[in-house]
Amino acid sequence: MSITTLGQFIIEKQQDFSFAKGELSRLLRDIGIAAKIISREVNKAGLTQILGEYGSVNVQGEDVKKLDIIGNETFIWALEKGGEVCAMASEENDDMIPLMGAYSKNGRYVICIDPLDGSSNIDVNVSIGTIFSIYRRISDQGTAPTLADVLQPGNQLVAAGYVVYGTSTMLVYSTGKGVNGFTLDPSIGEFCLSHPDIITPEDGKVYSINEGNAGEFPQGISDYLKWVKETDKATSRPYSARYIGSMVADFHRNLLKGGVFIYPPTAKSPNGKLRLMFECIPMSFIAEQAGGISTTGKVRVLDVEPMEIHQRVPVVMGSKNMVNKVLEFMNK
Ligand code: AHM
Ligand code: MG
């Protein structure tokens, strides 16, 4: 048998970490379990009335839960039960959630999570995702976790990854030693290694940005967008525009095929839209681990000191040469 399951792979890699006592492996396994549950819910979403607004009541008189609430609750359940994580910050909650279960309160890790990213695509059957990042806790084990435990810069990450619920469900993660991707085989209910050692192309011809906001972009971005549309065989221009509106799916395509993903500052949102802790840091970690670059336009995303859980930052990430080209325009 030539398949390697996520569980087998995690155990094989545990020896890469001198400090590992098996907790990180168990935590990654718990994330895999939560991802499988969410994938199951996503796949039957149109049938089970979990689309639509939270708070309404379905024909059976049951409360309708939005998929992003289900995703959030699934992670809280899996992590509290798993016992490796003492606190979680979620895009769905205003404040950090201490996990004070019998085991979890002594957990050595904290996690930041966007349980269901790409909310506008949920109800229309377009790819969505889950994004996670894992840090070692700073506070002493056994004490109550503090905000400082979750407000760590990306350069302190232990691991990060995402799940894309697309034509198939894939989990992609890194513990700082490269990037590996696993596809869920529904017939055996396991994530199986399908994309070992992902390296992103240095170049590409896809740019991903919400050009509907073009009137609000900084001059450098507007100039870059003019440049990508010019015809020049030597640089494969014009480039192709691809924008799903689910960061995970846009990022995943560009990671595999080459491309640049941009969410710039706009006049209305001077820090862009995307969240540092939940979206930008974990995806930047994966981008860099695969040989790409990720920057706010001014500094490396992984070096931004977080000030608050829901902080936003602009982001330019993806293939090395493409990101550098955007920076060249931004710095003119
Ligand atoms: P969400 O967390 O509410 O789903 O928003 C994040 C999403 C990203 O997945 C995506 O890249 C971006 O918002 C799209 O935003 P816009 O519609 O402004 O282009
Ligand atoms: Mg999100």
Mean pLDDT: 92
Strand percentage: 15-25%
Sheet/helix structural class = alpha+beta
CATH class of the largest domain: Alpha Beta
List keywords for this structure.
332 residues; 8-stranded mixed sheet; 5-stranded mixed sheet; alpha+beta; binds 2,5-anhydro-1,6-di-O-phosphono-D-mannitol; D-Maltodextrin-Binding Protein, domain 2; 8 helices; binds magnesium ion; Fructose-1,6-Bisphosphatase, Chain A, domain 1; globular
Overview of this structure, please?
The chain is an alpha+beta fold. The protein folds into two domains: 6-195, Fructose-1,6-Bisphosphatase, subunit A, domain 1 (Fructose-1,6-Bisphosphatase, Chain A, domain 1, 2-Layer Sandwich); 206-331, D-Maltodextrin-Binding Protein, domain 2 (3-Layer(aba) Sandwich). Helices cover 29% and strands 20% of the residues. The protein has eight helices and 13 strands. The protein has helices spanning 6-13, 23-43, 67-82, 147-150, 219-228, 247-257, 276-289, 320-330, and strands at residues 85-90, 97-98, 109-117, 128-136, 159-165, 169-174, 180-185, 190-195, 206-208, 240-241, 260-263, 293-295, 315-318. The strands form two sheets. The protein has an eight-stranded mixed β-sheet with strand order 2-1-3-4-5-6-7-8, with helices on both faces. It has a five-stranded mixed β-sheet with strand order 10-9-11-13-12, sandwiched between helices. Helix 1 (6-13) packs antiparallel against helix 2 (23-43), helix 2 (23-43) packs antiparallel against helix 3 and helix 5 (219-228) crosses helix 8. Bound molecules: 2,5-anhydro-1,6-di-O-phosphono-D-mannitol and magnesium ion.
